[in-house]
Amino acid sequence: MARRKLLMGNWKMNKTSAEAKEFAVAAKPLAKEARAAHVDLGVAPTYLSLATTRKYAAKTMIVAAQNCHFKESGAYTGEVSIPMLKEFGINWVILGHSERRAYDNETSEKCNAKIKALIANDMVPLYCVGETLAEFEAGRTKEVVGEQVRKGLEGLSEEDAKNLVVAYEPVWSIGTGKNASTEIAQDVCHFIRTVLKECVGKSANKIRILYGGSVKPENIKAYLSCPDVDGALVGGASLKIESYTELLRNIK
Question: What does pLDDT average to over the chain?
Answer without folding.
Answer: 95
